[in-house]
Write a structure and sequence with these properties.
The complex is a heterodimer of chains A (486) and B (333). With 486 residues, chain A is mainly alpha-helical. Helices cover 66% and strands 6% of the residues of chain A. Chain A is built from 15 helices and 7 strands. A two-stranded antiparallel sheet of chain A has the order 1-2. A two-stranded antiparallel sheet of chain A has the order 3-4. In chain A, a hairpin with a 5-residue loop joins β1 and β2. In chain A, α3 packs antiparallel against α5. Chain A is globular. The C terminus of chain A is likely disordered. The N and C termini of chain B lie far apart (56 Å). The relative contact order of chain B is 0.13. In chain B, β1 and β2 form a beta hairpin. Chain B contains 14 helices and 5 strands. Chain B is 77% helix and 3% strand. The longest helix of chain B has 32 residues. Classes of the chains: A mainly alpha (486), B mainly alpha (333). At the A-B interface, α2, α3, α14 and β7 of A face α2, α3, α4, α5 and β2 of B.
């Protein structure tokens, strides 16, 4: 099996590794940016200090997550060329412009207003600051729009012509490229996933502090807000996911066959397998356990509908089933778990026990990182499910790579693995540290300096300056605030 | 009138690269010079002078890369594999220096470590960028539509020289930025650094220019024979004038003037590179027309660029304006 460790496989592992790491950060920051905008909006509307405190509590965490997202994202923007140069050359005329639009309409927007969002409240006043927060939140969404359009085009390519030199060239209408058939579904599914991921992180942090002190008003507020999101968005996501699946069924049938573990065709109703060990060699699902006809019901809304299996697809056009099959199941299980927590919280809320049911808080705490796992599994399902193609049915992944020697890619892969685990491991540690600190009145936000907030000569601190800025000296978050002391 | 969109896009990419080089250049330069500032107040102020804007500055790198991908996909697909180790080193360098902005505040007990990461990351990124530029200028072997050279084509005395030149140039930008944003002793220190960096930059610019002409007969012809020389000659002359004015301003000015002059120096340097490389995007074989995306892609992007770029410049300028003036650390005013 080691002769398989060629430059191509290494390049694929490197891309999978770097993109998986990267995906965690936007999955979190898309939702968190919106949450911050909501918090600041509520603060401006109601004037209640608690919203400002929560804003400042989460904006510190956002700053770290965003920095990690930026640096890991720059890696992605170059990796198309470094490791997938044939793909870049041939598909560049079609997807390059979409990515350029992402830079122009999203990256600049986020980055341009981030500085003001993090450090500028005292300089520009409340309203302009809120506008900056909204721009950052908008930027994260617009970024998702373009990059998912690119990604969707690679799954369901439309609107292009083949050039004489082998390049994919744009056709008459760019709308046919941008709004390719899988894009609307993928966009909704992914953005909802980002919101859910953030909701469960916020809910988990709220639950953690409620478990320590159920009277903590800040923890109550964030837990309550997060549980509303869970209760509303998780069911929406299940519907959106189902529609995305049906869209995949229409355009990428092999992927759905792999997700379902259907090696064989089922002429009168296909089972929904709950368990099984996919065996690509023998083209069968070992130790299969499933519910008869349920898959046909879900996919075709008819118990007896025939469903084709991988036996209708030539072996060299099949995706590897094991990863797709299991990643899909884990994602579904997490989605159901999220909905269960959401429903549970509704029940608790209805009974007036939202802040009292310890097991609900424990469940929310356990579920707090679940969004990341679900996002990762969803990503694996769709990306591995597209194999062996990089542009579905048109360009094979094996034909897309750069002319690099295996040792060069092995070295860079090793460097990425070491650096990412060290650097992003440290970042996650710092985020957990910030989350561990109790949210309280007079949060400090992302200002930096050991002696106080940075300020510019001639600018008077605005009315948003809260008194504790002057009294609290420790901005590093490493020491406990007085009210946290037991 | 018939406008050649390929030329328009060549200028747009050059603009993006220039914007990146000067904007992230001063960030990276501050990273390179960081260890010479005293831990504590001096370092904090130096860091705070760029904390609100570094992210926007770095976005120009994505525009440069993404724009090249979109407008000249073949060039993107050739240059990056040809300079693979440099690009990976640059990306990893940028990872370290990017997170250091946040991490150093979050973890005072390891601040010295993250300050080191900030410096080393900046240094590696700057060196790798300069060497990539050198590797491009010295020529990249292409066969068909792919890179056809070997592993270490990018590692030559020439690329080392361009790498060092870039490091010195970024240090100059960073030091002049700090003259602008700091005062007192820290400013005096920045001034001293700026002078050294200016001499280093000028010496290395000169060396690279001479090397360019010696390296390649075609480059030599462009610079040394009529009628090209009439168009090319103003560039070194203006560079020399800018250099003299810069060196004078470094001894007296307390505000932004040295920074703008350093910027001007970079502008002329880039103009010189433009003259050298034109009309190739990957010398010696691939011209901008060989590598250009089809007209439909060019037009589509041009519309977006024309609409968004004025807005980007406006809100970026606003963000700089918000954080204008000398950086302070304590709340006096």
């Amino acid at each position: 099996m080691f002769d398989g460790l060629d430059a191509l496989l290494l390049a694929r592992i490197q891309f999978a590794f770097t993109v998986s790491f990267h995906f965690f950060f936007p999955a979190f920051s898309i939702g968190l940016a919106s949450y911050l905008a909501v918090l600041e909006g509520l603060w401006l509307k109601t004037g209640k200090q608690i919203y400002l405190d929560l804003f400042k509590y989460w904006v510190k965490i956002f700053a770290i997550a965003f920095a990690m997202g930026v640096v890991s994202g720059i890696v992605m923007s170059y990796q198309f060329g470094t490791n997938w140069s044939v793909f870049s050359d041939l598909a560049g005329p079609v997807i390059g412009p979409l990515m350029a639009y992402e830079v122009l309409t999203a990256f600049f927007l986020e980055a341009g207003f981030l500085g003001v969002m993090l450090f500028g409240m005292n300089k520009v006043g409340k309203k302009l600051h809120f506008a900056a927060t909204l721009m950052v939140a908008l930027g994260t969404f617009v970024s998702a729009f373009w990059i998912l359009s690119v990604n969707s085009w690679m799954h369901t390519p439309t609107g292009f012509e083949m050039g004489a030199n082998g390049q994919y060239l744009p056709g008459e209408s760019w709308l046919a490229i941008i709004f390719n058939p899988s894009f609307p579904y993928r966009l909704v599914h992914t953005v909802l996933a980002a919101y859910l991921t953030t909701a469960f992180v916020v809910g988990g942090v709220g639950a953690w502090h409620l478990l320590k002190d159920r009277a903590n008003l800040h923890a109550r507020k964030m837990f309550s807000m997060a549980m509303w999101m869970a209760a509303i968005v998780a069911p929406m996501q299940i519907v959106a996911g189902d529609m995305h699946g049906l869209n995949t069924m229409e355009h990428q049938p092999q992927k759905v066959m792999a997700m379902e573990g259907h090696y064989e065709s089922h002429p009168d109703g296909a089972p929904l397998y709950l368990f099984g060990i996919p065996n690509d060699e023998e083209q069968r699902l070992d130790y299969a356990f499933g519910i008869p006809k349920l898959s046909s019901l879900i996919l075709k809304h008819d118990l007896d509908a025939p469903l084709a299996g991988l036996d209708t697809i030539p072996d060299d056009e099949q995706p590897p089933v094991f990863m797709v099959f299991w990643a899909f199941r884990i994602m579904i299980a997490i989605g159901m778990g999220m909905m269960a927590v959401g429903v549970w919280s509704l029940l608790a809320r209805w009974r007036g026990k939202l802040y009292d049911w310890r097991w609900l808080h424990r469940a929310a705490l356990v579920m707090s990182p679940s969004g990341f796992l679900a996002v990762l599994c969803g990503w694996i399902t769709t990306e591995v499910g597209r194999q062996p193609y990089v542009i579905y049915n048109l360009m094979r992944t094996s034909d897309a790579a750069s002319p690099l020697a295996a040792p060069a890619v092995a070295t860079s892969l090793l460097a990425f693995v070491i650096v990412y685990f060290a650097v992003f491991g440290a970042g996650v540690w710092y985020i957990l540290h910030l989350m561990h600190a109790s949210p309280h009145t007079g949060e400090l936000g992302a200002k930096r300096g050991d002696k106080g907030p940075i300020r510019t000569a001639g600018i008077t601190p605005g009315p948003t300056q809260d008194p504790s800025d002057q009294s609290t000296r420790d901005l590093s978050g490493t020491k406990h605030e007085p009210e946290e002391a037991p | 009138m018939n406008i050649d969109l390929t030329i328009v896009w060549a200028f747009i990419i050059a603009f993006a690269v220039f914007a990146y080089v000067v904007m992230d250049g001063f960030d990276l330069g501050i990273g390179i010079l960081f260890p010479t500032f005293a831990p504590g107040r001096e370092r904090d102020r130096a860091m705070n002078s760029i904390a609100p804007v570094w992210d926007g500055n770095e976005t120009w790198l994505v525009l440069g890369g993404g724009g090249l991908f979109a407008a000249f996909p073949l060039a993107y697909a050739v240059i990056l594999p040809a300079t693979y180790p440099l690009i990976i080193a640059m990306l990893l360098g940028l990872v370290f220096r990017g997170v250091a902005f946040e991490y150093r505040w979050r973890d005072p007990s390891h601040r010295a470590f993250w300050d080191g990461a900030f410096t080393l990351g900046s240094l590696v990124a700057a060196m790798a960028q300069g060497m990539t530029l050198g590797a491009l200028l010295q020529g990249i072997e292409v066969e068909g539509r792919s890179y056809a050279g070997s592993w270490f084509d990018w590692l030559t005395p020439y690329t080392l020289l361009t790498g060092l030149g870039t490091v010195a140039g970024y240090a100059l930008l960073g030091a002049t930025w700090l003259i602008w944003k700091l005062d007192g002793e820290a400013q005096a220190h920045a001034r001293k650094l700026a002078k050294r960096a200016a001499w280093g930059t000028l010496a290395l610019m000169g060396a690279v220019s001479v090397y360019n002409v010696a390296l390649n007969a075609e480059y030599a012809e462009r610079w040394l024979s009529a009628p090209e020389i009439y168009f090319a000659a103003p560039v070194p002359i203006l560079t020399a004038v800018a250099a003299i004015v810069l060196l004078r301003s470094l001894t007296v000015d307390r505000h932004s003037k040295p920074f703008w002059l350093a910027l001007l120096l970079f502008f002329f340097g880039m103009a010189g590179l433009g003259v050298t490389i034109w009309p190739f995007v990957v010398p010696p074989d691939v011209t901008i027309w060989d590598a250009a995306a089809p007209e439909r892609s060019q037009i589509f992007m041009l519309v977006g660029f024309a609409i968004t770029m004025p807005l980007i410049i406006a809100y970026t300028a606003w963000a700089y304006w918000v954080f204008r003036g000398k950086v302070e650390d304590e709340g006096y005013h």
